Amino acid sequence: MVIDHVGQDPQDEVAARFYRRIDRSRAVQQTDEGLWLVLGHPEAVQLLRDRSVSSMTRTPGSGIWDQVSSRFFMFKDAQQHLRLRRMVSDCFTPARLAELKTVIHRAACDRLDRLGDRAEAGERQADIMAEVAYPVASDAICRLLGVSPAESAFLGRWAVSLSRHTTDEQFNRSAEEILAFFREELSAHRETPRGSGLLPIMAERALALGIDDDELLATCILLVVAGFETSANFFGNMLLSLLWRRERFERLVADETLVAPAIEELLRLHSPAHVVMRRTAGATAVGDTVIPADAQVAVLLGLCNRDPRIFDDPDAYRLDRTSNPHLSFSQGPHYCVGASLARVELEAMLRAVLDRLPLLSLHAEQPLRWSGRFLGRGLDRLEILAS
User: Fold this and answer.
1) N or C: which end of the chain has fewer CB within 10 A?
2) Lowest mean pLDDT across 57-61, 286-290, 293-297, 321-325
3) Taking the model in full, what pTM does it have?
């Protein structure tokens, strides 16, 4: 979708107009095609916390990418899900996240300083997605896993290919390459343990939990694609919203104590993931509705994040929300295992922008293009003017 700059904030306006078109008279309803929709926040929380409801909604194909993604723990239930999730869930320690936050902030500052130097030389225009969001997110995942930062460009390229709607041939070629890469990394770590990243830790835990190499490799790939894509996508969505209504950006420049609530509010309004799919095993009560067994259910997270029963003035950007229980990282047993990492990345990157380029603005003549991704909605480019 392409949206031109028109002197207002289309990201806010388009989202609000889109969601206003949906009939919200019933929090749970069925479409003419038979798909069940959950549109209300309390109902979504109830469904997502119900451990009898399945996340196994995909029918794996025969391609390499289909085989790899079918092993992702986000598509598993019960003990299968728990054992794979446990391999990584305890790895996001406060100490590791604090260290990573410092590294990410430094990497973002370095890249933003280059943009500042180019601006001083007269080259003000840049695509901040390509210059900052993608490489910093890729570098962060490399450091988290314990992979050499020199490999971040390769991982970033594979993650972009696997997260976008490319051809089956491209999907499978990228899947083959990233699988081969992690097989070599895993073999090297086993032969000569090195570093303090997650890869050797995960390999050790996999052995203790009875997780085979195919599942371990798939989890590594999930961390790369999800960690890279979610952070980069939301960074672009967040920065666009702040710059289009520039008083928002200027307020954060003046008072960086507002960064954390701003991120939460923008996660609520502009999260990349607007829907998750579930399947009922048996008849399932959600609110005052009973969804039948073996039904496909779409939980509209983006709409639930605007439920007026939970959020006052739900379409408005407000930093004074004392409670912001948005569902952008889902809820229940499938609550995003990397939520704390995502928050650390976003805060580090946003603070770097506020520190290094406080006069940053949008390039008013460039259209915006969003595209659907594996895990949501993100900008292909975000043209800015550095000062």
Assistant:
1) N
2) 57-61
3) 0.90
Q: Is 169 exposed, middle or buried (0-12, 13-18, 19+ CB in 10 A)?
A: exposed
Query: Would you say residue 8 has pLDDT above 60?
Result: no
Residue 111, pLDDT score: 94
pLDDT at 154 over 60: yes
In terms of CATH, what superfamily is 2-385? Cytochrome P450 (1.10.630.10)
Quickly count helices (H) and strands (E) in the chain. 15, 13
- Could you write out the DSSP letters of every residue in 51-87? TTEE-------SSHHHHHHTT-GGG--HHHHHHHHHH
Share in percent of the chain as helix, strand, coil (round to 5): 55, 10, 30
pLDDT in tens, 62-118: 678 778 888 888 889 988 899 999 888 877 888 888 988 999 999 999 999 999 999
Per-residue pLDDT, 366? 66
Residue found by looking up tokens 């019960």 in the block: 78
299 pLDDT exceeds 80?
yes
Sequence-distant contacts of 85-92: CB under 8 A, at least 24 apart:
85/337, 86/205, 86/209, 87/202, 87/205, 87/206, 87/209, 87/211, 87/216, 87/219, 88/198, 88/202, 88/219, 88/223, 88/337, 89/337, 91/198, 91/201, 91/202, 92/337, 92/338, 92/340, 92/341
Backbone angles phi, psi at 149, to 5 degrees: -55, -25
Q: Which two tokens stand for residue 313?
A: 């003035």
**For residue 51, what are the CA distances in angstroms to 46, 197, 279, 281, 301?**
10, 32, 11, 10, 18
Distance, CA of 45 to chain centre: 19
- Residues 84, 218 contacting (CB under 8 angstroms): no
Rounded Cα distance, 352 and 346, in Å: 10
